[in-house]
Every structure is written in structure tokens, then in C-alpha cells.
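To: structure subgroup
Subject: Chain for Friday's discussion

All,

I'm putting the inputs and outputs inline so they're searchable in the archive.
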Amino acid sequence: MIGRILTLGYGLVSYALFFAVFNYSILFIGNILVSPSLDTLGPVNLPKALAINLGLMALFAIQHTIMARPAFKRWWTTIIPPAVERSTFVLATSLILAAIVYYWQPMGGVIWHVENSTAVAGIYALFALGWAIVFLASFQINHFDLFGLRQVWLYFQGKPYTSLPFRKPFLYRCVRHPMMTGLIIGFWATPVMTVGHLVFALGCTLYIFMGVQFEENDLKKALPEYPGYSSSTPMLIPRFFA
């Protein structure tokens, strides 16, 4: 019983950390209420700043890509209990995301700065929409399974884990990867685009396009319904009408 309690506690702490870091990251990216933010300007050693920032994003991409692959999961769950595999992935993601926020280096220069109040409000509305899509999409496919809470809760109850059935809720009928679509909107919808923000947005967008290719291959192998779904539903640009 103690092992089940510890497993549940581990999953809850991992999720709480992710929730805090992810929401702080949204404020960091949007230059909202936090300092420094992604658009903070300051003295710049451009080669050093670029090397650090690209290194941080590469670390995130490597961790995310490797730990999400089925082959790694099969090996990893011979070392750790399967019930905490997803929570461990979430915890590792949170720590690296926190490192990106904490160690991000300012990269001087403003590419655009929208000052019209109506336009700024519209851009921030688009920014909010992007992150709302991310959250809504996660709940449409089972937010708690995605972030490891369902796995540790089932283990706590002494029940075996069961895979979720293939479903196509609203957002997933419009686009196959709505969370990625929302992230791209959130990265680019900004009234102030500094060089640092541009590097971040470009790097993250490039990784999304690369990462979804790995995800697509895994889904086609795991779900017999997925090839037909992928042929009828766009990957990242939503289609609202058939």
C-alpha cells in the first residue's frame, strides 16, 4: 500500500510541477507580468547567447523525442514501474522547460513592435486562443492520461492500465494535432517580436514539424484507424468544413 501511495504522490507532484512551470512559461513567452521574459532586452554577446539558447532548445527536443518513442518506453519500463513512466516523462519535460525559462539569454533587437492598442488587443486575443486550444485539446483526448495522473490513479486503486480507444472529438476532426497548432499560434502571436523571441519561435516551430513526423509514424503503427484518419484530416492547419 505504501508503494501505491508513493506512486500516486509522485504522479501528483510531477503534474503540479508541470502545471506551474507550463503556466509560467506562457507568461514568459507572452511578456506578461513576469521579468525577465522572452522579449527582455539587455547587453548581448550574440554568439554566446545564441549557443546557450539553441542548446536549451536542443536539450528539450532530444528529451522529448527520445522519451516519447515506444522503443525507449519499453526499455525504460524495465527500470522504472510502468505506472510512473508518463509521470517521469512529464517531470523531465518540466525541469527542462524550467531551465529554458531560467537560463534563456536576451538577444537584442526588435523586429516588430505593434503599438496600436486595438491591434495589440487583437494579437493578445490570438495569443490566448492558441493556449486555450492547447488546453482544450488535451482534455478532449484525456488530459489526465496525457500527463500521467490516470496511470498512477489506476495503480493506486490496484487496477490495470487500459489504453484509451481511438476517438475524434471536435478539434481532432478539424486537425490531427491541435495542441501543436495551438502552440504555434502562441509562439508567434506577439505584439513585440525581438530577435530572441524569433529564435525561440522558429526553433520551436521547426521542432514541432519534425516531432509530429515521429509521432505520426508511431500512431500509424499503434492504431489501425490512424492511416485512414490521417488521409482525411489535415495535420496542423485546421479544416473546419469537409
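Points worth raising on Friday:
Residues 2-232 form one domain.
The chain has one domain: 2-232.

D.
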